[in-house]
């Protein structure tokens, strides 16, 4: 019986600058071979960086021909200082151990600066196209976004929760819900962790969840995914929408400064400059409608909702007036917000809710929730919904809940807007839409 | 147009010891009122702690009767040093602002040391029973487990990924898969992120995902959930099972030391002592069968799989022999492992895989994967499976993958074993089993 001591984990990469003049071993995938006169550049793709290697017949103990792009290797190489290289050093190849070879060279070229192809092809070949340096950087940054948020959450007393994705009732109800058979019972996929995070406010006061949500929306647009990652937040002892907006603004600031600190290389590679977020303007919904109508020289249309075009227009207007790429829109009409949204006391036709728009796109919906049992039951009944269908959700209200509110941030939308993409699919590893179940 | 500056987030709790002699305001839920002669103890449940408050008619400006258990309040109180109190101080109540009241007192008593009821009732009333101090501590610790793992992952170069839970093929295949209609196409819920994490090894080298997985298993046992949280890990440039086991052991050690550091109070409350994890014994599958048969004075039965009873027996044996609560079982028979598992070169009837057993229960399955395209296709064909059905998965193999492997850890099982529960449902906020879709 032998034992595992768990005393080390192999490194993924070596910081070359600490090993100049030394001979090291380094593993990675041969990203690109560029033959020059008398020598060759070989780019080695490692976990986080791409290293420039130099192959010369004088130094190397192997013929260049044994190297194939996308083969996985361990190089033995000398580290040589080289200011013109991105890493400040390059690797002069001495020997190679070939660990694996591709079966064939991918039809899609992935080792140019960009993957030069249509969005459909980019997504169809995701397992391969994600290997492109820029494509993978998108998801490194996305990891930075969630880590940045998590640091904030831990600091401010939020507990992370894992709530079920299969259930017997939908948070928003309606047709936009995936149905399934669950051992002979009808079940639904969660459109959001709304009910559960509210229940959990009664337990931990502040909770968050970063998890998939499912929407059976028949929207075939550049903004919609049928499965996406929702950053859900809920906090107790909150009695104003402003506290929620303050919290989100703080969250975003913390996250951006974490990105700036830890993801400088990826941001530079994608030529992304982080927004200089100082403060976020707040405009009530009705005012937004007015401003946009004025800009368009038209009447106010659809007084209960914002069209995507209106979201774009108001963002442009705010950007021009204040320099901000973000704007909070508040006081949405009651009719278009879910049944758990708290109404304004003075104007019950309006809600104490908000959306956050970023560069023309809604990335967050939030608001105060009804915490009083009788108020919630009355509201359900006014909407013609049956309180009995929400018995386990309402159990929390019956037993007493603090005043509370929260928000949900679409991770892919936030990533996509930050990177300046026109289609949210670019910010999802393996997007799901009406037509796409693969890869 | 006013602006949100995002410059502060309200605190959840105050460290009493820093405010002795001061009058503070603190919000929370009235957990328990205990009337004594001439005064009363009022326990206030805050985000993470429960504070002892003292009500006396001399000091308080309000009658005790306005306080109801599970009402949410803001207390104005003087902080008084008190060594007999768990927090080293208590709160002498001066005034109260009542934020909300429960509609009714819960039928299940939640403010005793334990919720004294059946498991079924405990789960049926989860939105309420989770408010019990011990019940909620379980999920604080669970948050500590995932945070502990994440710290390890960040340190050792793992990138977090979010992979789709709706897809067109199952990783393990078979009957244990939930089906659904996806815009007229048949789709499945992910049994694991197996395919995606392997694809992503070709992109980021090391990846992890902590996300829900779905198993339509008709197992009505204390060990099974039909939806659970899987901590999935995959790493490239790994050519031995030992490296995977080393990594998991290191992960567990890091996580336990994080728990010890950050969750001392919760662990003490639940009377949990963390395992003193130094090293983990490794025993090949065939040897386990032999040892257990010897203990039972019986022949070796079912030579291809371990029964739950055998997992318990071998754990007891290892505990007696070595003191370890963990044991790695290796070299599982090929027939019972999924098609992507790498076989042993010398003994193709055995796999280069492992399970980790903890106190009698399997909490991890892992192993090396087949990375060579032709080898994987041949294996699928040998099993009578159609490689065409796995085209997008195999795209990664065709394009070249490093030797790699990984593991999946069941978060609820790990939590449940650590806390010494006999039923894994105790470690799931809102468990899903064959009979339970609510709450």
TrEMBL record, chains A, B:
InterPro entries with a match to the protein in the record: Aa-tRNA-synt_II, aa-tRNA-synth_II, aa-tRNA-synth_II/BPL/LPL, Asp-tRNA_synthase_2, Asp/Asn-tRNA-synth_IIb, NA-bd_OB-fold
Gene Ontology CC terms: aminoacyl-tRNA synthetase multienzyme complex; cytosol
Locations listed in the record: Cytoplasm
GO molecular function: aspartate-tRNA ligase activity; ATP binding; catalytic activity, acting on a protein; RNA binding; transferase activity
Assigned keywords, A-Z: Aminoacyl-tRNA synthetase, ATP-binding, Cytoplasm, Ligase, Nucleotide-binding, Protein biosynthesis
Pfam families given in the database record: tRNA-synt_2
Enzymatic reactions: tRNA(Asp) + L-aspartate + ATP = L-aspartyl-tRNA(Asp) + AMP + diphosphate
Catalytic class of the enzyme: ligase
Protein biosynthesis is among the record's keywords: yes
Its biological purpose: Catalyzes the attachment of L-aspartate to tRNA(Asp) in a two-step reaction: L-aspartate is first activated by ATP to form Asp-AMP and then transferred to the acceptor end of tRNA(Asp).
Subunit structure and binding partners: Homodimer.
NCBIfam families: PRK05159.1 (NF003483)
Membership in a protein family: Belongs to the class-II aminoacyl-tRNA synthetase family. Type 2 subfamily.
UniProt name for this protein: Aspartate--tRNA ligase
Source organism (scientific name): Sellimonas intestinalis
Gene: aspS
